[in-house]
Amino acid sequence: MSAAPALTALTVLSLLTALPLPSPAALELLSTYAPLARPSALSSSHLSKWLNRLNASVSAREPAAAEMGAEVIRQDVEGHAASQYGKAWMGACLGSLSSAATPVDALPAFLDLVRALVAAAPYAPTFEREVVQPAMGKLAVAMSRLIERLVADGEWNALLPTMETVRALVSASPAPFRPAVNTIRPALTGLVLRTSAGAPAAIRGPAADTLALLHMCSGKAAAPATWGSDMKDALGGVAASISALAADAWEEEPPRTAPLPPSASTPGFPLDPLLRVPAAVDAIEGYTEIALSLLSVTSQRPVPIPLAQVVSTSLRLLNLTLDTPTAAHISPQHHAAMVASLPRLWASGLLLLATAATAAGDHLVPHLASVLEHTVYLLERVPASMSESRLKLFHFHSILLEVFPPAILPLEYTTRLLRFSLSIMGSLLDTRPQSSSTITPQHRSKGKKRARGAEDALVAGLEGRASRPPSQEVVDIVLAALELTRQLHTAPMLPAALLTFSIRLHLSLHLALASRPALVSHGLLTSAVDDVLEEAAHLEAGGTARDVRALLVSVLPSTSKRNMAFDALLHPALPPMARPLPPLAQLHMFAPESDEEKKVRRELGFGGGDRDQDDDDEDDDEAMAVDEPVSFVQPAVVPVVTPVVPAVVMPVMAPVAPVQSAPAPFSVPVVVPAPAPVAAPIAAPVAAAEPAVPSVPFMSAPSSKPSSASVAEAAPVAAAPAPAADGDSDGEAIPDLDSGSEDEDEDDE
């Protein structure tokens, strides 16, 4: 079935002419097909007829017609509608915005039409000179009065498009708004500080953005000084709010620089601590929002940034932690309110530092050491329950590493950041020794202990104590940690053991995530881990002791982008030579770790594999042997000679007590009773090879056939311990005394 042909502009115009105005269908046709993009290509009679109808509806101050008019102005690249009907539409907008009888619901449509007319003015010089510029003074007065009226009435939904229109008008022509600044600033400052009754938090950002543009109304020459004055007032307000918050409660450290004095418009704070804490926190967030907007706004001329004051104010917020000493007379309610406000204070400090780093750039380099001293300490000290604060700290350090290369950061802080990030990733790995509880080795006494561990794991699963997949908050933190480690891997002078362990851990995550598809955000985690490993493949070999590129290239999944990045690594720098393949020792990610890597791993809290488990088993068995001593009989040593293996010393002891003995590779200890006094030494106990002793699985053949006399003498002796062997045939007595450690067996050999 063929697709329906697209509607032409003339067809859409015919449909618009047939529809009544205003009509929702007409607005949908306009926004979907844009028929008025080239008015010169349309029929002039049909176009004039429809625009005259639309002009009549807009002049009648119908909101739906104003929306259609704004859409027509944006589509018309030739400026036909603005030049012909812009003057009438601007007059209708001024009348609607200035009249108090205009419904609040109708204001956004006329505000949108004003923004469209002002944006189209630079492309139509005649329209700008004759219509827009003469109306800017009236628009400034109307907008200032409209803001006052909406704030007083609490019409927050209509206030958002009003502030957007003010920002557009000030950016286009700031001079007409100079008399209205003294009216707009107090109203918007009250919204930012939330002193206006019922002001929502969502309106704080747009109000701060509008305040940050008001310095442009002072003129090009005076705008930088006005910007600096506004910035100092904002920092002074933050400092005064911190002092009010910490008064009679926290014992602050002295600030790095003297705080700026607050402005005369800074509001006062209540004397009651339970009322003063939320008011001070709201003021801190409000003044911080103003400072952020001032640092983010685009200015026409360079502005003086008080960078030392910005850093000092931010670090003063970050210094307030759970470890900050408090006054002895503070009430529990007051203390609880202050502790609850800590995440908001940290967020304000981090936002201020991150925005200053983005705006000032290299000017912040002298302050990096002091900044990292506070932020890294706070990241290490924040409890795991404060997941949102920990996530913001990770994001802050990622922004810092995007602005500044890791090479200029102090090595101490990059190392601490990498170690903490690696410790966070352990939440995705099951640190419990599952292999030791599910895999039971053959011919090993500690297999029964591990079988009991498997039963414990089953019971834990039935009781609800089994491990659960991480939550979305944990996954978000791990994703932020992965992004941070990707940036930290390029830091020079990192310890080689730490960098190698980091690549090992990311490789373990890559292999573990493939078998755990039920995780939250599994695709994001897999992509983040692969990106880290891809960046690690481009690292030089000096930091990892051996080249890991061949391993990472073979492990990572193949994509077009990744193949393009790896082509430079795989392309030979020299012509191919006849040489063998690299040895397996170069795959050092699967080689035994060094002592330094093992130390790093244990310091970060990662449990090892079977080796660490075996070490723990040895310690437990040694403790058991000390707690339950057994009386041993000194065995007599009898040499046994075989033709294939060298002479092996085999213990022979009396049957009074079982003896703990480690098996040798080529022979097995045989428990026999103490021999009777015999003139000649026993060459080989033939009776021990008979099935009378079922606990002996293997016995080497003797080198020479024994004589009949020796057989006759040895037969009664070998038959004596048969009852004892039957009593211990279940194998329970000996494994209880056996240490179960292979390392001790190897030492005995």
TrEMBL record:
Keywords: Nucleus, Signal. Residues 433-453, 697-749 are annotated as: Disordered. The lineage of its organism: Eukaryota, Fungi, Dikarya, Basidiomycota, Agaricomycotina. This is Pre-rRNA-processing protein RIX1. GO terms for cellular component: nucleus. Belongs to the RIX1/PELP1 family. Residues 697-726 have a biased composition (Low complexity). Residues 1-18 form the signal peptide. It is found in: Nucleus. It comes from Apiotrichum porosum.
